Amino acid sequence: MVRRTSGGAGTDGAGARGAGARGTGADGARADGSRAGAPVRAARRPQVRLPALRAHDGRPLAPDGDYDGLEFEGADFAGQDGAGARFMDCALRGCALDDTSLRRARVLDSVLTGVRGVGTDLAETTWRDVELTDARLGGVQLHGAVLERVRIRGGKIDYLNLRTARLRDVVFEGCVLVEPDFSGARLERVEFVDCALKGVDFGAVTLRDVDLRRAASLEIARGVDRLAGAVIGTGQLLDLAPVLAAELGLRVVD
């Protein structure tokens, strides 16, 4: 932690400087609503219990379609339009989502396993109590989306666009995220566990109880000044030292 101090002596002045340097008020509250020294709150995992599922009949997706209690096995949705659709108690396994439009769709109490695709449009979607496992996605659009109690485990997602999204109780576990963009997003109780973050963009992000300590790798391309509200480990702090020094305008000369 780097503390800024000003001239002047005296107990009162030092106390005020100490509180200001940590970004806390008189009651110890930080600007992001957390409290100094408080433990990071863990994300709540989704509890998905699917009912007996019916096989999907193979019809193409339909805008504003209503899909309840269905299993989609190896379906090819490439280029289809399912904007505004609702998926409730569904399982999507090995489905192709290349250039599929699911803008403003709702995915609730569902599991997605081994889905793949490039250019999938999931902007402004709602995800609640969802498990996404072993996905292979590229250029997926999730800007403006709302994710609550979501677990993303395994797989690789390139160029994930989560700009202005809201994530609450989300766990990224054992996955690889290449140049994910969280610009302007709000993250609360989000964990990165054995997850590789490569070239992540945290510009203008708001973080609260975000746990980065167990990330397998952490490469921040932008927004290192927005890490207030996150928790990192000592080793990660040392790795980020050059980026932090550049952000603060510090010159390190041996």
UniProtKB/TrEMBL annotation:
Region named Disordered: 1-44
Highest taxon listed in the record's lineage: Bacteria
Composition skew (Gly residues), residue ranges: 7-26
Pfam families cross-referenced by the UniProt entry: Pentapeptide_4
Protein name: Pentapeptide repeat-containing protein
